[in-house]
Each structure stands twice: as structure tokens, then as C-alpha cells.
Write a structure and sequence with these properties.
disordered C terminus, 6 strands, 4 helices, about 40% strand, Thrombin, subunit H
Length: about 140
């Protein structure tokens, strides 16, 4: 197991979705969602956009995809925590309740175990008071 894998508290998984990233006060750009967790996302961006994003940038992330044949649309605010070459690692900082429910359901389906989801949710510090069980 690598050092990065040992330090991770949140399970990451690939998710195919149309993805757009919008820096504050700038035009939105298309990006590629490489992986997702309950805590953040890893995105692939092109060269022209990469220069506008630096660590600690506040960005709006929107993505649309399918889970079990159902369309999901999520919107959240993120902070860029790492920018390397064509990749931006983002941490979620604000998510509306509907997007959070969809994210929980997506993560629960990927984990296959509600107890693992509950364990990850207890480590979050930005969604207090929301139900930790998928679908609630």
C-alpha cells in the first residue's frame, strides 16, 4: 500500500459524468471527472484552464451522470487542494442537501456497505445535522 493510500480517509472511485468547473468570476469550462469520494474529486483540466487554478482556489463544480440507470446532477463548491500538470484535486466545501443525498447514494452504491459509508461520514466536518443513511 502506498503512502497516499494509507493517508486517505475516504474511498475514491471512478465515476463517468459530464463535468464543469467554474472559478469565481470566470466562465465555466468542461473538465473530466477522474475520481470521486464523499470528501472531494480529482479532475482533469486542459492547459488553458490550469493556469487559472492555484491551490486554495474556490470553484463551483457541477456534474451529471447516471447511477443504476437514474440521472444524477450534483453541484457543489470546492477548494483546489493540489494542482499538478493537468489534474486538480478538490475538497468539497459546500453542497446543497439534494446533491449531498445523491452523493451519499452514489458512494453507498460504490462501497456496497452502509457501515463503511457511515464511517466515512463521521470524518466529515462540513455537513453537520444531515442524516448519514443513504436515501434519508
Amino acid at each position: 500500500m502506498s503512502e497516499n493510500e494509507e493517508r486517505r480517509r475516504f474511498h475514491r472511485f471512478p465515476f463517468h459524468a459530464e463535468c464543469q468547473l467554474t472559478p469565481t468570476g470566470k466562465d465555466r469550462v468542461h473538465c473530466e471527472l477522474l475520481d470521486l469520494s464523499i470528501n472531494g474529486a480529482l479532475l482533469k483540466v486542459d492547459d488553458s484552464f490550469r493556469e487559472e487554478v492555484v491551490p486554495d482556489s474556490h470553484l463551483r463544480l457541477q456534474f451529471n451522470g447516471q447511477v443504476s440507470g437514474e440521472q444524477v446532477s450534483l453541484e457543489m463548491w470546492v477548494t483546489a487542494v493540489r494542482v499538478q500538470r493537468h489534474q486538480v484535486a478538490c475538497r468539497f466545501t459546500a453542497v446543497d442537501a439534494d446533491s449531498f443525498e445523491q452523493l451519499k447514494n452514489l458512494v453507498a452504491e460504490n462501497l456496497g456497505d452502509v457501515e463503511l459509508l457511515d464511517r466515512e461520514l463521521t470524518q466529515l466536518d462540513y455537513w453537520p445535522g444531515l442524516s448519514v443513511s443513504p436515501g434519508n
